[in-house]
Amino acid sequence: LLNEDADRAAQNIGLPGFSEEERGTTILVLQPHFVQNGSETSATSSPLYSMRLISEYLLWYFWPKMLAYGSSGPSMVFNVSWNGEQISVPHPTEHPRLKGFAEAMYRLKGSNLNVASPFRHTTVDIESQRPAKHLGRLALQQFPVTQSDVGGEVASPFEHVTHHTALMRTPELVVKYLGATPSPNARFGYAGVFITDSEVDEVFADAEPPTHDDWVSDSLTDPWHKRYVNVGLRRITEEMDAFAKPPAITSDPTSSVTPLAAFATGLGSSLLPAEYGTAASLQVVKDRFPTGNPEPSRQRSEDNAQDTEIHSPAGSSNGIRASNREENDATPLPPHTYGSDSRIPTIPITEVHSPPTFKPPQQAESRTNKPVGRPRLTVRSSEEFLLLDGDMPALRVDFVVTHGSGSVGTIVYAAPHAVLDGNQLELEPPSNVSTPEVLRWISPTGEQYAGSDEIYIESSRLGVWSVLVTALPDIVLGIELSAEAKAG
Amino acid sequence: MARVQKLPYLLPHPDRVRVANWQLVKDNQFQPIGSLLPEWDPAITIRAVTDVSIDVAGLLQDCRLNSDVQIIVAAGWYSTGTVLTGKGSSVLINADKEIETFQLSLEVSGLFLAGSIDLRVQIVMTDRGSTEQPFSPKLKGSILYNHVQNVLLEGDGARFPIEVLDFSSAGYFPADAAWLLFWQPDDLHQTVLGGEIRLYINAKHERVRRAVSENRPEDADIREAIRLDIARNLIYGALTNPEFTANPNAYPDGTIGGAVYFMLRTYFPDIQVAQLRSMARRPHIFDASIQARFNAYRES
Q1: Which of A51, A61, A414, A454 is most buried, most CB within 10 Å of its CB?
Q2: Is the pLDDT of residue A320 over 60?
Q3: pLDDT band, very low/low/confident/very high, at B245 (cuts 50, 70, 90)
């Protein structure tokens, strides 16, 4: 049916006509079946419920048309009624979710600005760099999110629209709500409005599917046009993400740093005592030093020749003992007492034996198969420089061997090396350089044995043994001593 | 296996040198530095001094050095977290004196530090002089003595998240307010240290900014007011959250709910949460209870 025939038919079935200047479309749905989300409960299947939902969706797509700018009225007026009863269509500025969008639209238009608003807002141009094109303008507006009824009893489409931008072309009908990063504080949301530039409006129109509810670049053929749509959507999302970040981001990074640790630590220990932070804490010290002594190097005194399993001076990489004694003040030192003998100790030339070696029993059957315990070798921290045989610089290291249970003796190995950076031993020295060697072993009773990397000590020979190694100038000397039990 | 490590020259007996405990210098006041500085942060510059007393004659004798030797005593620092090192003041020792006493100092910006700092005093030979004794130090730069005081700067001690911010640039923050506790009492499952709870100090509010950053005694009441305000905020927020009051110990460690519950158990160990909720309905009395339990405005 066309023209006058159509008008007559419409009049006969009760459709309102148009006056001479009016243009538009009238849609009639015959015998509608009201179902909300597939559930046909009495509440959601009522015609009134559906009319209210229609009112919400009118807002969803057409709220920009309800706004008035300056002295002119809104470009469209909406009425919803059911059997003569008016159904409310709230104004966007009074809708708990749309008021942010309305304010963003006002920002974009430069009209009806609420200058006293305490909420953040920004307006930016969205552009494509290559090819250079102005794609449109975006306004973002922060707004408080209240949990008050959105849509009343109706399941409103706006319920979760708290971090979205309404995308629209120049006719200013909402195509879709583009979501991005939510605000970190759920009490505040943001609403954006993006309107395409009139020069690219046709491109975005072509990107819309028949339902006009999206911009899809795949439906375009011109590669530049595809890029306009893709770049536009990406730039809008980037602007939204940046806007969503917490206000801390807006602090001036060039301003001087304010020391807050003392106050933060005081508040933390008072109000968040169970929480972890970054403050130095006693607990950490306790964990780090399980012995309960936060300063392990304090335990050791230079002149205290206690037996020690491993003598590696704490806090030092070069062999200097790093003392860490706490004293309230550097009290004047007492008059120093010089050693009675300040000369370098010297061992004169004397009879030197070959070092004893372990000789396993000849008869295999005489050997015992009993397991032997591990020997223990402890170094005494009283190593001393001396001149061996009158003039050979040497370092004497004293040690005690505790023989393993059931053993007949222990082989002690001495391995002297230069020490490199990082306290590593130089296991492969360069050729043609002097390397430290074992010069002599001395028994508890004073017998001297020639230099060898190892010596066998019978379990009956108890007491403090010494090993003498070359003291080369200008190297840090490292000596490793190990022990191996021997069964009879 | 046992290991011995030895420098190739003689060292002085440790008793030849005494290094006093390092002192922190702040506003011309001295305070001893212990094994940790819980109040340190990268915005804090460490200024420290120590007194050193050296038995010079004994040191020279121990090292077989003559009085024409040149040795200096120097302060320095090393940070374990940044692996940076730096020097403080140094003094040339008069080798003709029997005993010398010095004050050494160092200053290091917090931006160079992390983890812990070693405060060092070293005695270094810069010229061996005329000695020809075996085992005496020979090379320039030989370290004769090394004293280290290790101070822990960072650990895992509680620290309330705080940020100084210009409220006028922060959107919905009231521009002239002094501070604002940012949190969401209706979601106590959020993490404490993930930024979901933070005390903002208005950078434009000079008095409060100074009170929280400079820790002066005359500003103690402002700090106390903030502490009490946060405590009230957290307590009332949690007690008006039905999920919290129904099941207060259901929040894991590290959540705001867990932290507030722990705080309530700390300050109100004898009162159940349900009872506290009832008390909170009469805020004029409950506020006073909070003051009392938090020992508010008392000399620390």
Answers
A1: A414
A2: no
A3: very high
Neighbouring residues of A77: CB distance < 8 A, sequence distance ≥ 6 = none
Contact B171 A247 (CB under 8 A): yes
Nearest-CA distance B282 → chain A (Å):
22
Interchain CB distance below 8 Å, B10 and A385: yes
Q: Which whole-number Å values give the CA distances from A26 to A2, A49, A54, A133, A460, in the listed order? A: 14, 22, 16, 39, 118
Q: Which backbone phi and psi does A113 adopt, to 5 degrees?
A: -70, 135
pLDDT digits (tens, 9 = 90+) for A199-255: 999 999 999 999 889 999 998 999 899 999 999 999 999 999 888 875 443 444 444
For A302, the enclosing helix (H) or strand (E) is none
- Chain A partners of B93 at a C-beta cutoff of 8 Å? none
Q: State the amino acid at position B124 in one-letter form.
A: V
Q: A196: which strand partners?
A: A136
pLDDT of residue A22: 80
Angle of the A47-66 helix axis to the A98-109 helix axis, nearest 10: 20
Residues of chain A positioned with their CB less than 8 A from the CB of B201: 258, 260
Half-sphere exposure of A56 (CA within 13 A, CB side): 19
For residue range B13-54, what is the model confidence (pLDDT) as tens digits?
A: 989 999 999 999 887 788 889 888 888 888 888 999 999 999
State which H helix or E strand residue A62 sits in: helix A47-66
How far is it, in rounded angstroms, from Cα A434 to Cα A416? Answer: 12
pLDDT of residue A233: 95
How large a percentage of chain A has pLDDT more than 90?
A: 31
Residue type, A166: A
Its sign, for the CA torsion B109, B110, B114, B116, is positive
Does the distance separating the beta carbons of A301 and B4 come in below 8 Å? no
The answer to whether the CB atoms of B32 and A328 lie below 8 A apart is yes
**Chain A positions in Cβ-Cβ contact with residue B225 (cut-off 8 Å):** none
User: Facing residues of B142 across strands?
Assistant: B125
Which of these, A220, A90, A75, lies nearest to A149 by C-alpha position?
Answer: A90
Contact A272 B158 (CB under 8 A): yes
CA A56 – CA A225 distance, rounded (Å): 33
Q: How far apart are CA A214 and CA A211, in angstroms?
A: 8
* CB-CB under 8 Å, B157 with A399: no
Closest CA to B22 of A40, A330, A379: A330
d(CA A349, CA A390): 7
The SS3 assignment for A234 reads helix
The pLDDT value given to residue A257: 63
Compute the distance between CA of residue A374 and CA of residue A360 in angstroms, rounded to an integer: 18
User: How far B248 CA lies from chain A's nearest CA (Å)?
Assistant: 15
Q: How many CB pairs under 8 A join A and B?
A: 346
- How many whole angstroms from its chain centre is CA A278? 14
**pTM (predicted TM-score):** 0.55
